[in-house]
Amino acid sequence: MEMEITFPGGARVDVNFGDHTIYTDQPPIGGGEDSAPTPFNTFLASIGACAGIYVLSFLRKREISTEGVRLIQQIHRDSNTGLVDQIDLEIELQDDFPEKYRAPIIRAVELCAVKKQIEKPPQFNVTVNNNPLG
Asked: Which CATH number does the domain housing residue 55 bear?
């Protein structure tokens, strides 16, 4: 998969792939207009969104309503480095959610592809080339 990263102005950076664009910006303190999430917050949101897909799929397969269901993601940072050192995912379920499905829904979230990828990070290869168009 190829993604093209473009710079539409200010501190905005767009990611284009297929028929989709992910818009990012920086807050005013970072020179942006806060018109979109930062790239890092987009990354963090992808974790919750991925986990949410697994919760949704789990519920749909069992014909359980999503009403009243929420996934809460808490980010904890190391006070010395500022880096994320823990991510908590809490699944809030209805009071009448079947007890027999509580452990299985947690196992379903553990299958999240974004979570698995973070646990086994890829290698990065950064290069520089001249743009043949300009």
From this structure: 3.30.300.20
